[in-house]
Amino acid sequence: MLRRSGETDRKATLFTPGSQRKSRLRRKANDEEIGLVTTPSDVVEKTPSASVSRPKKVVRRKTSNPTRSNESILSMTFAILTLVCCFASIMTVMLFLLMHIETPDLQMKDLLYQGEHSLKGVLQRKEKQLVDATQSLLGHSPGLQRDIHSGHAVQTIRKDESNVIDMRELNYQLPFSNEDGGVWKQGWDVQPVLVDAEHPLTVYVIPHSHCDPGWLKTFDQYFQSQTKSIITTVVDALAKDKRRKFIWAEISYFAWWWEEQNESTRQLVKRLLNEGQLEFVTGGWVQPDEANSELYAMEIQLQEGHTWIRENIGEEAIPKYAWSIDPFGYSSSAAWLWQKYGFRAMLIQRVHYAIKKELARKKHLEFYWRQTWDEHGEHDIFTHVMPFFSYDIPHTCGPDPSVCCQFDFKRGRGQCPWRKDPIRVTTENVAERAMLLWDQYKKKAALYRSNTVLVPLGDDFRYQTAKEAESQYENYQIIFDYLNKNVPGAHVQFGTLSDYFKDVMGTFDTPLLKGSFFTYADVNEDYWSGYFTSRAFDKALDRQLERVLYAAESMGGSSHELRGPRRELALFQHHDGVTGTAKTKVVEDYARRMFGAINETHEWMLAFIKKSQTTSVSRFGETLKPCISASEARDLSINHCSGEVLLYNPLESPQRCADTTIAGRSFALGFIPCEIPGNVAGSNTVIEFDPKTGLMTAPFKEQWMLWKVKSGGAYLFVPGTQIPYDMKNITVEKEGFVINTEKWKRFIVEKEVPSEYGTNAIVIDFVYEVSVDIDNEEWFVRFGADIQNNGYFHTDLNGFNFDTHRFRSDMPIQSQVFPMPTLASIDDDNMRLTIISTHAQGTASLEDGTIDVWLDRRLRQDDNRGLGQGVQDNRLTRTRFRVILESGGHDHAAEFDVSPLVRRMWDELQHPLEMFGQVTS
Ligand SMILES: [Zn+2]
């Protein structure tokens, strides 16, 4: 029998996710229990970067006493839900997790590289939180302590543990109706809050500029033509007036700008940062996509940004508040990551409009985001959801965009779609202008529980010229001065993200929220489920870079040595990079960068191998080359080695190539091919195929399908007609293990199930190569098995967390397509079907017993989200699925987790052997 998930959960409690992402501890425990022997095989020549497990100090943060909210407006639904959740969490002893790969050593090394003080910093921060929380438990009145640096009240934690919003339930139950709300189209007629001397209202207007590191222009083009002058403009504008503030997110741009500045400008910037006029938010290399990215890459982009800040500005400038206004949906993995890096709060914006409305209705737009597996809330992070349609100025001052747009002073005549132009603020009109804006602030305040309002002031690539910057800063300052002088209780000023969060956190009982925010819709039935698959080739290239980088780091490469490749991987995590939502020339630029990064990492590996002076390597001499490579950035990589090769296993567990077993983190000589299509030698698995088409019929069913669509583009999937792929001119070889058609090929390899995992599982790899060259077709594979999953469908989040969806026949199909960064699974009481993929794509379970996984999509038309083109630059793309059919299902009332076998198979698929051979012409 396979281990049921409950058993893995118990073992999983050995692992503290807060300390490490990938559980060496847990893995070892698993391995020991299943009797895995990891003695080095005799082919091992050398174990690079001997792993030394360092003891981890885990400081548990105490949470304050949960208090009941007097003003609780809990609906019955949520009360019941909460009870169910609490009950479930007590009954199921579980920490949940995780399939991420980074080892404690690597993590520790990276932290150490960034300076010993930074490691201590993390621990001290946690200790400080402990002290703060303890003091509030003891009854020290919150808010009286002052933060010595900021002068703000130390944030206290007021969680309402009785109020838990579970996104999985909400997604299943919400009507998703789309009534016209009036001026706030997706909301309702909001009434302003009362403000007077006894009921003051603080407003922070937060100037920002959203600078995509690649979208319509390449990263370089944007920097040269826009971003460079934006940062210069902002620094000048801030220097003019101490009351002005600005926040900056993308360190990729900032680092480049910094290189070009003289010492006096750098000193000025440091002063602005130090005095809180300028503030980094998140401070990642980019603002990463959260649907297609793996946690490993999300963390690298954060490390690259923070390392740059640490080395060039100083530890104190590293952000504590995260800002994510444009990624197309949000994952709990990101919340976990920010919390792990010491963030105190975060802000998100692209959440389904109906979810926003529901959260706003209950004043739940601010919550502690809790991991589904976290029993004690150790990883909670305070989260703010922006309420309206967009992050631009018309949709951030309050519910009425026709009013807010009048206060975007960059816009000239006719540039507000609501036909009311901005008017310059003067002493003559200030009273009328200020009160008009004030009304919007008071209405926005009605959606939140605190008496502080956050008002972003910016848009894409804003503050490009001094004229533009001055028009915003000057007009707003006149309004602020008027309001502060003439309206009792008004405190309006420019602010930063930390100004806002420091004011609101701890001032009200805050609900908890579990789950994630996919699939995003901005209007009507426009669901952003196309980008889960768009530019599949580049999504695959992203993982290729990730794999080789991971392997190099596991050999001992430091983040310093691998800085270049790490930054290219980081750049592509941008929400128009790995999402596949950039212009063709930008996609090609990203690909060139990643291709260069792969080559650079391979060069580092070869240098490392040559330095190692072992006999196996010296036999290859100077001609050693990586076996898997491509001739061009967007060409499929091929294997150009044959016969004897040098193999490197980046994992800690052994991996095999044909008859050779390579111990973890070791080199060995072996012979390729490592695998050939067909059954494992001596296998009892009966694999059957349709004799005509070659498609698999047993042990599970394989169908080649496509969506014929009439609309949709890089972002949106809009279903049309679903039809089987026309299998003309097919060649079926090896009974069906190999199928070749002109544009769609695949071969099948049965994988050996290591004996320690029992005999009740079948593992089969499907390797597809598709070349979609017909417009408005979306190609996918449907896998089917005799499983009654009752609409329950599980996917992963960033190769780290899991999400559970329930099919709704009353909802459009495009709303039920989800990101599959690495995994999709269905199960019933008896059986489970799990698909693991080498890269990200969309997935759905539209009929019981089936999982659809996209291979690629090609769209003729634009989908009106600003890109201005379709997706027609498809390349021949290879996708490998590892399909695992296991006996022993899962109770849908319990949290989903995967079996130890799936975990092992996942590791091996994501981190296969690196091969090096002697190149022969
Ligand atoms: Zn963006």
TrEMBL record:
Record flagged with keyword DNA repair: no
Keyword tags: Disulfide bond, Glycosidase, Hydrolase, Membrane, Metal-binding, Transmembrane, Transmembrane helix, Zinc
InterPro entries recorded: Gal_mutarotase_sf_dom (IPR011013), Glyco_hydro/deAcase_b/a-brl (IPR011330), Glyco_hydro_38_C (IPR011682), Glyco_hydro_38_cen (IPR015341), Glyco_hydro_38_cen_sf (IPR037094), Glyco_hydro_38_N (IPR000602), Glyco_hydro_38_N_sf (IPR027291), Glyco_hydro_57/38_cen_sf (IPR028995)
Name the UniProt record assigns to this protein: Alpha-mannosidase II
Cofactor(s) the protein requires to work: Zn(2+)
Family: Belongs to the glycosyl hydrolase 38 family.
Domain Glycoside hydrolase family 38 central residue range list: 526-594
Skewed-composition ranges (Basic and acidic residues): 1-12
Bilayer-crossing regions: 78-99
Primary enzyme class: hydrolase
EC number: 3.2.1.114
Alphabetical GO biological process terms: mannose metabolic process; N-glycan processing
Entries under SUPFAM superfamilies matching the protein: Families 57/38 glycoside transferase middle domain, Galactose mutarotase-like, Glycoside hydrolase/deacetylase
Pfam family, one: Glyco_hydro_38N
Spans annotated as Disordered: 1-32, 45-68
